[in-house]
Design a protein that fits this description.
The chain has 277 residues and is of the alpha+beta class. 34% of the residues lie in helices and 24% in strands. It has one domain: Aminopeptidase (3-Layer(aba) Sandwich). Strands 1, 2, 3, 4, 6, 7, 9, 10, 11 and 12 form a 10-stranded mixed sheet that branches. The protein has a two-stranded antiparallel ribbon with strand order 5-8. α5 links the parallel β6 and β7. The chain is globular, with a radius of gyration of 18 Å. The two termini are 23 Å apart.
Length: 277
């Protein structure tokens, strides 16, 4: 899954085989056609469904793509009943390790957050981003496969810390004040690994002041992806960021893999040990 020097395709070299569940499978993209399918899926979800505002080039291509795609590994969920290769892509995640980010000069999240504490972490780090799933496949089975794929990738590369931006819908932070307040009061990252929103973009998260917080309602309103990170023992950074281009309010998420209790990580590690014995 490492990129050869000079590789600008965003296509990973082989690392782990496809993990399967019925007609579904998860693996890394291996062809340009598969990455094009990822970018087309992201266009459909982010722009057509979620109301992101495209620039002229994005609108013309009907693809969500940027320079980070050229160095990233692209995790795919495939439904083989739809076909093979790009035709089968129904979900995706973008994975960027430090050596790949170094080729760009920064991680994607650095446009919104000061990552200095994250990057000082004494171990391998991984940025997660651009996650989306086709509307017909937004179910537990697909999310389980995505996490299985991430678990395999984390174990293979010895990742100690995962981070990235996760989004709440809309660009009005007061509309998601309960969710932001809940995250800030209950899941703020330890200071030594805490991303901090850049001063010119920072929006306060603890927005309710003395007003009561309905914790149950706030948790129920969180997007599934953020709930998934929290189930993995994840934390959030300090400060939210409004991303008007993507029509979202973003929060930084950090997950230390040694705190992860999710069964996919434990299962993959156990299987790898047994396979090596």
């Amino acid at each position: 899954m490492t990129h050869a020097p000079g590789n600008n395709t965003g296509i990973a070299s082989p690392g782990f085989g496809e993990l399967k569940a019925g007609s579904l499978g998860v693996r890394l993209a291996t062809t340009a056609a598969e990455i094009d399918a990822v970018q087309a899926l992201r266009w459909h979800v982010f722009y057509e469904e979620m109301g992101a505002v495209p620039d002229a080039a994005t609108a013309a291509s009907r693809r969500d793509r940027d320079v980070f795609d050229t160095v990233a590994d692209h995790l795919l969920v495939l439904d083989h009943e739809r076909g093979e290769g790009g035709a089968a892509v129904v979900g995706c995640y973008r994975l960027i390790r430090a050596p790949a980010a170094a080729r760009i000069g920064r991680f994607y999240s650095a446009d919104e957050y000061d990552l200095s504490r994250v990057l000082a972490f004494p171990g391998e780090v991984l940025e997660l981003g651009r996650s989306c799933v086709h509307a017909d496949y937004r179910n537990r089975a697909v999310m389980q496969l995505l996490w299985r794929g991430i678990a395999a990738y984390v174990f293979l590369h010895g990742i100690g810390l995962m981070f990235g931006c996760a989004s709440l819908p809309g660009t009005d932070p007061d509309a998601v004040a309960p969710e932001l307040t809940y995250l800030y009061r209950n899941h703020l990252a330890p200071e030594e690994i805490r991303p901090v929103a850049l001063p010119h973009r920072r929006v306060a998260m603890d927005r309710l002041g003395d007003k009561p917080l309905d914790t149950r309602a706030a948790v129920a309103a969180l997007p599934p992806l953020i709930k998934g990170y929290l189930r993995l023992g994840g934390f959030v950074g300090e400060g939210a960021v409004i991303d008007r281009a993507f029509n979202t309010v973003d929060v930084a998420v950090v997950v230390k893999t040694d705190l992860v209790t999710d069964r996919y990580f434990r299962h993959y590690e156990r299987s790898a040990r047994e396979g090596a014995s």
